[in-house]
Amino acid sequence: METHDPALILHGYWRSGTSYRTRIALNIKGLRYDQVSHDLRTGAQRAPDYLALNPQGLVPALEAEGHVLTQSSAIMEWLDERYPDPPLLPRGAIDRAVVRSMAMLVACDIHPLNNARVLNRLRDDLGASPEAVKGWIAHWIAQGFGALETLVAHHGGRFCFGDALTLADCHIVPQLYSAERFGVDLSDFPRLVETVDRLRAEPPVAAAHPDRQADAG
Hints:
Blueprint (H helix, E strand, L loop, with lengths): L2 E10 L4 H12 L2 E7 L10 H6 L7 E4 L2 E4 L1 H11 L10 H18 L5 H10 L4 H26 L11 H15 L8 H11 L2 H5 L10
Parallel strand pairs: 1-2
Antiparallel strand pairs: 1-3, 3-4
Helix pairs in contact: 1-3, 1-7, 4-6, 4-7, 6-8, 7-8
């Protein structure tokens, strides 16, 4: 059942992986929310009015109940506590730890090494060639996906962990989208690709896709 909470305002950008994962979580919860776009290509996330909300100058940020929450993983944990049904984490403590580890593998070990700030530093300040940057991206994604392929093969069902949508799916779907956008060879990760293909057919996931956002283009 969809719930409209007019206090929820998501500041993001259509192609941002962290915004994408947050949209998936909001959609799984059946929450309606307003969106404010900050075009990362023009540096809009560093505008003074946005820095007043999020001093780090990154997306996403979520305005909720008179507060501003930042860091997508923290936002999703808050959503799971504030709107517990349906849950983003399984019931058992070990299972929750496994789901969190799959999510953090993306959030901590893949995505930060391939975000725009890092790639711009490689290009502009360190003089990396386009081929070197592409190799950097592919290296870190493939290294992380190798671990995820094993984890999903062991713990997955219809989705990345069992048969219910979890925090792991919220993180992994956008990361595979990023890998495709950068032309990373995914032939070594068939279980991961197959699982994400199923996930993309789920309405909450499909609605969060970058191409379906108002600011896409």
